[in-house]
């Protein structure tokens, strides 16, 4: 059943993003920012963790999870290191994903040639 809910909730997040493109005519940058901020707000009010428990990868794969990671890391480190932990926590939690994206992007650029 977890696969069903992951598909439904993840698909709903994608539908919301597509509606932002098609109906509200928002740019990709605006849509991305709104989805990241919504993930951050949901984690800030404590609703994202129960959503992860319910839908699993359906909410950890979309871009809303990046906002969740930023806030979650900031809150976690702020509890132990104070104000400086807010900044370092965001970088500590998200650095692996950002590093992987950069590394795989460079590898892809080395091995593949763009069509043009």
UniProtKB/TrEMBL annotation:
Any Pfam family hit: SpoVAC_SpoVAEB
Keyword Transmembrane attributed: yes
InterPro entries: Spore_V_AE, SpoVA
Keyword set, alphabetical order: Membrane, Transmembrane, Transmembrane helix
Residue ranges crossing the lipid bilayer per the database entry: 6-24, 93-112
Taxonomic superkingdom: Bacteria
Classification via NCBIfam families: spore_V_AE
PANTHER family: STAGE V SPORULATION PROTEIN AC-RELATED, STAGE V SPORULATION PROTEIN AEB
Protein name, as recorded: Stage V sporulation protein AE
Protein source organism: Oceanobacillus locisalsi
Classification of source organism: Bacteria, Bacillati, Bacillota, Bacilli, Bacillales
Annotated gene: spoVAE
């Amino acid at each position: 059943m977890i696969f069903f809910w992951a598909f439904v909730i993840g698909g709903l997040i994608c539908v919301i993003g597509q509606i932002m493109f098609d109906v509200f005519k928002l740019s990709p940058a605006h849509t991305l920012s709104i989805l990241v901020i919504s993930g951050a707000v949901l984690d800030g009010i404590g609703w994202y963790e129960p959503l992860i428990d319910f839908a699993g990868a359906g909410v950890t794969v979309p871009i809303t999870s990046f906002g969740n990671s930023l806030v979650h890391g900031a809150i976690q480190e702020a509890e132990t290191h104070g104000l400086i932990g807010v900044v370092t926590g965001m970088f500590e939690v998200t650095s692996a994903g950002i590093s992987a994206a950069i590394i795989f992007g460079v590898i892809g650029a080395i091995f593949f040639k763009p069509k043009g």
